[in-house]
Amino acid sequence: MRESQSMPAPAAMRTARSVARLFGDLKVRPKLMVLHNLFFAILVLGVYFALYSYLPDQAKANLFIVLGAIYVLAVLALETTIMPLYVYRPLRLLLGADQATQHGDREHELIDASLIPGDEIGQIMRSRNATINDLRKREDELEEALRRLEAQDRLVSLGLLSASVAHELNTPLTVLQGSIEKLTETTHDPVTLERLARMLRVTQRILKISESLVDFSRVRKQHLEPVPLRNLIDDAWSLLAIDEKAAQATFVNHVAADHVVTGNSDRLIQVFVNLLRNAMYAIRPRGTIVVQSKRMNRNAQSWILVTVEDDGRGIPPDVLPDIFEAFVSSRLDARGTGLGLTVAEGIVHQHGGTIAASNRPEGGACLEVALPAGDPRRTGSHT
Fold it and tell me: Which of 69, 200, 251, 260 is the most exposed place for a label (fewest CB within 10 A)?
């Protein structure tokens, strides 16, 4: 008998736990509806039965009607105004923001601060916003680090390729240079001598470019000296004069005669050859290329800012952000490899300078190179 009487207790406990679990699994709104309906029902019935024995029959009916009306109005007020405003709406905002985060919608993953209440739900919202902001900041930093790492990997690969190409070029270029020098010694025709001299200068320039390709894979100590910019720009343009497009372009050198930078003239001339070549192929026939300079102060140091401007079609908006990346080219002809500006950027950075690209409001592109200023008094024989 004792065992049979004790059996229902565990079953009742299991039933109670099951009911509690089912109630706990309900969503917030039905759960609160059950709770406040139960509360008001108990309250109304308690008041009714507490006064029941003291009232006449007619008053009992009126009391039942009044308490029923109060119950209905209280439930309606809770479900249409109070709970939606202070509970359901904040919860919907939280759920919507979480769904936006899961789908990568950064525009809607943060909850508007003006919609966050000052209660515990509001504290959860503010904490969530702070966590998401911190997470996105770390993601952006990681993405930037990965981008820099990828850029370094590309430059390493480019350096290895450049060194290989340079070694392949050096032998035939040396043979070509020796042949030109030998022809110069065996002819006396002024026109032929002038052509041979130009060929020799171009060959020597190509040899220097070949050496600079090796610098992509092996950084070596460079000789730095004061370099007059105006003559450097003229020399760079003269190297492009053999191109037929150069004869169709108007070139204007407005660089100040006293503007001097500290650097390696061979490397810097490569920078401006690349910039001028890009401008030359961007302009239409009879287009204009203008190079200007100005002195400026930055971080308590004197700098020379050189701008190369053209009146061509400009840089496509989708190319502009990555214009200095390797193998990015905005030129439509087959000569655009996308390496010129990458090489130019590397040389400028080796000199402690900066380079930037933009489009001019009136049309065309503008390349800006900022280099540390040098002392004009130390240029010596440089003219």
Answer: 69
pLDDT at 83: 85
Confidence band (pLDDT; 50, 70, 90) for 44? confident
Q: What is the pLDDT of residues 246-278, one digit of tens each?
A: 888 999 999 999 999 999 888 898 899 889 998
| All domains of the chain in start order, with CATH | 10-109 (no CATH), 224-378 (3.30.565.10)
| Cβ–Cβ < 8 Å for 365, 315 | yes
Q: What is the pLDDT of residues 121-156, one digit of tens each?
A: 889 889 989 998 888 888 888 788 777 766 666 666
Q: What 3 state SS string does the chain have?
A: CHHHHHCHHHHHHHHHHHHHHHHHHCCHHHHHHHHHHHHHHHHHHHHHHHHHCCCCHHHHHHHHHHHHHHHHHHHHHHHHHHHHHHHHHHHHHHHHHHHHHHCCCCCCCCCCHHHCCCCHHHHHHHHHHHHHHHHHHHHHHHHHHHHHHHHHHHHHHHHHHHHHHHHHHHHHHHHHHHHHHHHHHHCCCHHHHHHHHHHHHHHHHHHHHHHHHHHCCCCCCCCCEEEEHHHHHHHHHHHHCCCHHHHCCEEEEECCCCCEEEECHHHHHHHHHHHHHHHHHHCCCCCEEEEEEEEEEECCEEEEEEEEEECCCCCCCCCHHHCCCCCCCCCCCCCCCCCHHHHHHHHHHHCCCEEEEEECCCCCEEEEEEEEECCHHHCCCCC
Q: Is the pLDDT of residue 242 over 90?
A: no
Here the tokens at position 29 are 């709104």
**What value, to the nearest 5°, has the Cα angle with vertex 68 and ends 65 and 70?**
110
Residue 309 confidence class, pLDDT cut points 50, 70, 90: very high
Sign for the pseudo-dihedral over CA of 266, 272, 275, 276: negative
Q: What confidence score (pLDDT) does residue 366 get?
A: 95
pLDDT at 335: 47
Rounded CA gap, 177 and 262, in Å?
30
Pairing of strands 250-254, 288-298: parallel
- Is this model's pTM higher than 0.85 or not? no
Q: Answer for the pair 109, 82: CB distance below 8 angstroms, yes or no.
A: no
